[in-house]
Every structure is written in C-alpha cells, then in structure tokens.
Fold:
Amino acid sequence: MISLSKRAITFLALLSLIGIVSAQAPKIEEGFDCRVMPMPQPVATKDTVEVIEFFWYGCPHCYDFEPELSAWVKRQPKDVVFRRVPVAFRDDFMPHSQLFYALEAMGKGDALNEKVMYAMHKENKRLLNEKEIADWIASQGIDRNSFLATYRSFAVVSKARAAKQIAEAYRIDGAPTIVMQGKYLTSPSIAGTKAKSITVMDYLEDKIRKNKYKQ
Structure:
C-alpha cells in the first residue's frame, strides 16, 4: 500500500482545486463571444478603457440587461470610461434619443433613465411623441416648459442626429450592444447570456489594459 505525505496530499488537493476552477471559468472565444470590428472607430480619450452601450429606451432586452450592466459600471476603476448612445432604428424612435440627451443636458439622466425604461416596459407608456414625453416629465416634478425648451434645442436635436450617425458608423444592428475600445463588440445575444456578456466585458477590459489601451 502506497502512503502519501501530508505535503503530497496538499499538493494534489491544490491541483484538484485548480482543475475545478479552470473547468468552471467560462472560456472566451473571440469571434463567438465577442467580435472584432473590421473598421475600428477612434476612442474619445487616451489611456482609458472606453465602453459604449448602444441602447434604446423601448428595447426590452436593454431593460432586462440594465441591472447587470449598472452593477458592472459601478465596480469599474477610474480608467474605465462608460457612456451610453441611444439608437433610433427608425425615424419615429428619434424622440427617445432626444429625450435621452435632454435629460442629460438638464443633469437628470442618472436619476431618470431607469425610470423612463420602467415607465415604458412596466407601465405601458410609449412616450413616442413630444406631448406624451412632456406629460411624463411633468409627472416627475420637472418643469414642463424648461424641459421642452431643452428637448427642442439645437444642441439636443443635433446630438440625437449624431447618435444615429455614430450607430451607423459602428454598424449597430441590435440593442443592447457593447463596444469596447472602439473595436470589440459583444452583447447578451452574442455571448449567449447576460452573465456571460459581463464575463466577456471583464475579459476585454483586462486585454485592453494589458495592451496599454491600444486599439
């Protein structure tokens, strides 16, 4: 009968644990869990990990992904720069893009973006025209006239139009879509699940940082 020393038993136990962890860690495959864009887009700032979520207020998948994405954003270090870009796949969705930038201009985006999505997905509010949007905004305690002045402003309308052009440049064909460093693209539908897409984002973040933020 062969007897093992305590040191050998400990070593074998560690090997077994490493094997279990490796088996549990999901494998990330570029081309499947994430895609490399054929034409990378320039990043806005240097020495940072740029993360863009292309979303639409009316998208049920965006609403479903929001808790996981918000939790991910909150735990990121200072070198990660996150921003949202609204996508209008049809012209009649443009009011939602204007709403997003109007709230941003008024400093109300962080407080109301999730409430907008809740109103649309849980309270069946479409918010597809100026009156519906203004009525809902007023119900949130924001001055209607001040909001409408911002919503109709040249700056907000220009940003909404620019967002559509940005989405076209990135060739976004679905929402939510995450683009990292203007180059890597992933989403819950691409990765397979919300949890896997978050894992892919962590993987890409580490890769970008190891590459010294180069594209």
Summary: The beta strands are 35-36, 49-55, 80-86, 177-180, 184-186. Residues 8-15, 17-23 have pLDDT under 50 and may be disordered.
